[in-house]
Design brief:
3 domains
């Protein structure tokens, strides 16, 4: 909030609160030049500097009270004349609960020049009403002007700086892994041009100390000027949900979940990644808030076990030095690389902008490879990388899914054993439990309790796989009308078959999926 030499006076007694509220908003607007207080995710928020960074802070009652105290002289009428007063608590609560539409709308906070949704470069510090973005760049960051139509030599120089200087010493397992590492570096600068969600960049390695977290730090240093604040995941879905809400309400544009050691299998994380807007109840309140999900998500782990739901929401960046103790490697081109990146940040930012601007000037050609749920992301990042001749984008997805999907591999192996043992017969959960025990498969579904419990657990697991295709076979679930039990069968995959057969009555007993419980 700005300081003023002369303050407006607001009298709070002998007036209806509805008459005081407009006066309070008026003085708040006068003090909010240039804008530092906004509407953000349906709430009042302000910018707050924390060390070298600027963050979005949701305004609570104490903060609103303080802003109003500083915005006006609050008075009370008495027989002896005007007396000093304070903003009424009811006024403060009403203003927080009902943000005025006149407050500027904040969409996001960025810390380096970026492109807005229309492809226009935002390079001037401060609030940009047209896009709703606030550029809080380091005053010492002096990025050279970006040509509207970068030449081939300018594009080549930018590509070389990023790949042959910044990323040179990372031993990426393939061109695809390197392409994804560069895509993550470019994403913060072009994120607003991507309508919809973006996938997780999963940086993995066979050995600790391979450089996963270092690479994530470089992404953060280039886009934000500082190393990335890391967080962790827990087995508690409720705790993870709260953490996601907290991070997105801060306007965090880069989220690093570092050094994951547990299995990556979270419904909350999967939902967050594919959500354009994240909705959740505020802690300790009944109010639901909506936070935009425009962050770049990075997860690092050593040979992680990843569920298929998380795997299909991720792109792999595998770093493999081929060394037993990779942290002891020497002879790097720029060492230490973090300090080099900070020192040359303006050049690195300029290089990212040049590659993106060259793509924009070429008419924004779409990438040739797509990714389900992230089509716009693939179109933009894939288009940029193809345009600047960086190969490998999304080329390793099939390999990654096959490697990551441990449960899927077990299901496929079990279905193969099932097919050899029972062909197309209808069988019970008990028979399939015995088969799983003999083959040593589906331990994750059976658990380690008594046979009855294992049968129940396997039945539930089989129901979750209903109509799933395994190669040329599909898992069918049927209700036996004679024994009143659920039976299972492998049938040949048929794209039109979306119904369940009653094994007791053949095709005459076809029942809707909704009829099976």
């Amino acid at each position: 909030m700005t300081s003023r030499s002369k303050f407006a006076e607001i009298f709070i007694n002998e007036r209806q609160l509805r008459d005081v509220i407009p006066d309070a908003w008026t003085v708040l607007y006068e003090a909010n030049r240039p804008p530092q207080v906004f509407r953000f995710s349906g709430q009042i928020a302000r910018l707050k500097r924390v060390g070298a960074s600027v963050r979005i802070e949701v305004v609570e009652e104490p903060s609103m009270f303080g802003m109003l105290v500083r915005a006006a002289d609050w008075k009370r009428t008495t027989l002896g004349g005007p007396k000093d007063a304070k903003p009424p608590k009811d006024l403060v609560r009403d203003m927080i609960a009902n943000p005025d539409s006149g407050l500027p709308e904040l969409v996001g906070l960025v810390e380096a020049p970026i492109f807005d949704p229309a492809g226009k470069l935002i390079a001037t510090p401060g609030y940009h009403a047209e896009s709703g973005l606030y550029l809080a760049a380091d005053p010492e960051l002096e990025v050279q002007p970006v040509p509207l139509e970068p030449s081939a030599s300018e594009v080549a120089s930018a590509r070389t700086l990023l790949l042959e200087d910044l990323l040179l010493d990372f031993p990426f397992a393939s061109d695809s892994d390197r392409a994804h590492a560069l895509a993550a570096l470019l994403q913060p600068f072009v994120r607003r041009m991507i309508a919809g969600p973006t996938p997780i960049y999963l940086a993995e390695a066979p050995t600790p100390g391979s450089g996963k977290s270092l690479w994530a730090d470089l992404v953060s240093i280039v886009s934000r000027g500082r190393s990335c604040e890391a967080t962790t995941v827990s087995n508690s879905e409720n705790e993870l949900r709260k953490k996601i809400t907290s991070l997105l309400l801060k306007g965090t544009d880069l989220i690093l979940i570092d050094n994951v050691t547990c299995s990556l299998d979270s419904g909350q994380l999967a939902a967050a990644i594919t959500a354009e807007t994240w909705s959740d109840r505020l802690l300790g309140r009944s109010r639901i808030v909506d936070a935009p999900n425009t962050a770049t998500w990075i997860i690092t782990a050593n040979n992680p076990r990843v569920s298929l739901e998380i795997a299909r929401r991720s792109v792999r960046i595998r770093i493999d030095s081929g060394s037993e103790r990779p942290w002891r490697r020497t002879a790097f081109k720029h060492d230490p690389i973090r300090e080099w990146a900070r020192e040359h940040r303006a050049r690195l930012v300029h290089a990212c902008l040049v590659l993106i601007q060259s793509w924009i000037a070429a008419g924004m050609p779409a990438g040739s490879t797509s990714l389900g749920s992230f089509e716009r992301w693939a179109s933009v990042l894939g288009g940029i990388l193809e345009h600047v001749e960086v190969p490998g984008f999304l080329a390793n997805t099939a390999e990654f899914y096959e490697t990551a999907d441990d449960e899927g591999r077990e299901w496929r192996a079990f279905v193969e054993a099932w097919r050899h043992r029972y062909q197309g017969e209808w069988v019970s959960a008990t028979e399939l439990r015995d088969l799983a025990e003999r083959t040593g498969l589906l331990g994750f579904a059976l658990g380690d309790r008594k046979p009855h419990s294992q049968r129940v657990r396997l039945g539930k697991a089989l129901n979750t796989q209903r109509d799933r295709r395994f190669g040329n076979w599909k898992l069918l679930v049927g209700a036996d009308s004679h024994t009143k039990t659920t039976k299972y069968r492998l049938g040949e995959a048929d794209p039109t078959s979306l119904r369940i057969v009653d094994p007791g009555e053949g095709m005459r007993g076809v029942r809707d999926v909704a009829g099976i419980h």
